[in-house]
Amino acid sequence: MSRIGKQPISIPNGLDVSLNGDVLVFKKGNLTKELDTKNNVNVEVKDGHIVFTSKGDDRQSRAYWGTYRSLANNIVIGLTAGFTKQLEINGVGYKAATKGKVLELALGFSHPINYELPEGIEVSVEKNVVTIKGSDKQVVGQVAAEVRGFRPPEPYKGKGVKYVEERIICKAGKTSKK
User: Fold this and answer.
1) Same domain, residue pair 64 and 22
2) What are 81-103's pLDDT values in tens digits?
3) Buried b / exposed e across 6-33, counting CB within 10 Å, b at 16+?
4) Residue 128 and residue 123: Cα distance in Å, rounded?
C-alpha cells in the first residue's frame, strides 16, 4: 500500500481540474498543465479532491501510484504558490545580472556566461543572491543545478555558486614542514 498514493489531493479555489481519458488537465488563469497517467493508475476527480488508486497489486503499479500522485501534487502547488530556489554567489568579482530572458554571470572566467532562461522561469538578482521562480518544480531545479554547475563551490575557500541552504565543509590547506 502506497502511503503517498493513498492521500487525496485537495483542489484549491481558482484551480480547475478536469479528466480527459487518462490525462489530468490543470488550469489556472492562462496557465495550463497536463499530466498523462498513461493508463497506469485510476484517477477520479470528485468533491474538490483528486483521488488516485492503483490498477494492480504488483510492485510496478504501486510505484506508479505514488509517483503520479506526487507529480499531480507538484502541479497543484506550482500553479497556486510556485516553486523557488535561491543560489548564493561567493567570490571576488563574481556577480550576476539579468537582461530580459538571459542570466549573465561573471564567475572568474575570461568571458561572461550568458544563460538563456527556459519558458516560465523568472530570475531576480539581489546583491549576491539569485532567486529562481517558476511553476514547474522540475524545471526550477534543473535551472538551479545548471547555474550552480558553471562554478560549483570549491572545498578550500567556498568560492563559487551554491544553494543558500547548502553548507560547504571547507578542507584544511597544506601545512608547511619546518
Assistant:
1) yes
2) 999 999 999 999 999 999 999 99
3) eeebebeeeeebeeeeeebebebeeeeb
4) 13
Helix, strand, coil abundance in the chain, percent, nearest 5: 20, 40, 40
Q: Could you give phi then psi for residue 56, rounded to 5 degrees? A: -140, -175
Q: Determine the angle formed by the axes of helices 59-80 and 137-150, rounding to 10 degrees.
A: 80
Distance CA 130, CA 88 (A): 6
Counting the structural domains of the chain, the total is 2
Grid coordinates representing 173?
Answer: 590547506
| Domain co-membership, 11 together with 53 | yes
- Is 21 found in the same domain as 38? yes
Q: Is the pTM of this model over 0.85?
A: yes
Q: Coil, strand, or helix at residue 144?
A: helix
pLDDT in tens, 127-165: 999 999 999 999 999 999 999 999 999 999 999 999 999
Grid coordinates standing for 44?
Answer: 477520479
